Amino acid sequence: MAEPKPIGRVSSYFSHIGVAAIELTDKLKVGDKIRIKGATTDLTQTVDSMQIEHKLVKEAKKKDSVGIKVNDKVRPNDLVYKE
């Protein structure tokens, strides 16, 4: 199977609220299953909610910067894949 193409990259992580800021290189919507992978990160989860500029959105497009609640710590430069 071909290596999946990343749809984004974590730009920052806010531990006090458990949110990852992700710069998208492809579209993403609520309900999509994502995998965040890095040197010490490997997390798979469903996108339950997503925000752009503190406003809830159902979907985001390429070049958007979104905030997604994550179930575990992620790190800047971790890659985001759609499962």
Structural class: mainly beta
Please tell me the overall pLDDT: 96
* Count of individual beta strands: 10
DSSP helix count?
0
First and last CA, distance = 13 Å
Give the overall silhouette. globular
Unreliable residue stretches: none
Secondary-structure arrangement, i.e. CATH architecture: Beta Barrel
State the CATH topology. Elongation Factor Tu (Ef-tu), domain 3
- The helicity comes to under 10%
For the biggest β-sheet, the strand order reads: 5-4-10-1-2-9-6-7
Radius of gyration: 11 Å
Q: What is the chains' assembly state?
A: single chain
Strand content: over 45%
- State the fourth-level CATH superfamily: Translation factors
Number of domains: 1
Sheet with the most strands, sense and barrel status? 8 strands, antiparallel
What is the ordering of alpha helices and beta strands? EEEEEEEEEE
